[in-house]
Design goal:
- The chain has 171 residues and is α+β, with helices and mostly antiparallel strands.
- The protein has a single domain, classed as 3-Layer(aba) Sandwich (Aminopeptidase).
- 23% of the residues lie in helices and 36% in strands.
- It has helices at 11-22, 32-39, 96-110, 122-125; strands at residues 2-5, 45-55, 58-72, 75-87, 115-119, 131-132, 138-140, 151-155, 166-168.
- Strands 1, 2, 3, 4, 5, 6, 7, 8 and 9 form a nine-stranded mixed beta sheet that branches.
């Protein structure tokens, strides 16, 4: 399997991959592929952090990390959002998501980023080191309970979120 930066000529194939990956997800609203297309045109998009996984000449996975900020009393804290990550259904449970995350996180660290946030299934993302962001004192902007386990964070650099208190807005 090869993991590489996504290119514009990949967009149509990635669109279909994302649709297929989320087709049977109970958490899907069916707009993930359109969300990714729109994200590519925003200032928050970082081309170096939009990756695809290829196997036998076909794209079998995609991941994108993009810019966000944690809003704190001391000002914004730069971070990344992981969304979406998709794997072709016939490649589920083959380590594709894990390999893409590892590659994306290494690139992100090289670019100077120290933390990644996401909204997702806690049981899945805990395997990769994510924990509920409220454990760091960072809350999803819509989390009135201040205990949402679906808003998660990963420190790319140990201690990166120590002392960071605030909110993050993730779609």
């Amino acid at each position: 399997m090869i993991i590489r930066e996504e290119q514009p000529f990949d967009y149509a194939e990635v669109y279909e991959l994302v649709k297929a990956a989320f087709e049977h997800s109970s958490h899907s609203d069916g707009t993930e592929a359109d969300y990714l297309n729109a994200l590519r045109n925003k200032d928050a998009f970082i081309p170096e952090l939009s990756l695809v996984a290829e196997h036998a000449g076909q794209i079998v996975g995609q991941i994108v990390l993009y810019n966000t900020c944690v809003t704190t009393q001391d000002g914004p804290f730069a971070a990344l959002v992981l969304s979406p990550i998709s794997v072709r259904p016939d490649y589920f449970r083959r380590g594709v998501a894990s390999a893409m995350m590892k590659s994306a996180f290494e690139i992100a660290q090289g670019l100077g980023y120290t933390a990644v946030f996401l909204c997702g299934e806690p049981d899945f993302y805990r395997k990769f080191g994510f924990i509920p962001s409220f454990e760091y004192g960072v809350y999803h902007i819509s989390d009135e309970t201040k205990s949402a386990d679906w808003c998660m964070a990963l420190e790319l650099s140990p201690g990166a979120l120590k002392g960071i208190q605030g909110s993050v807005d993730i779609v």
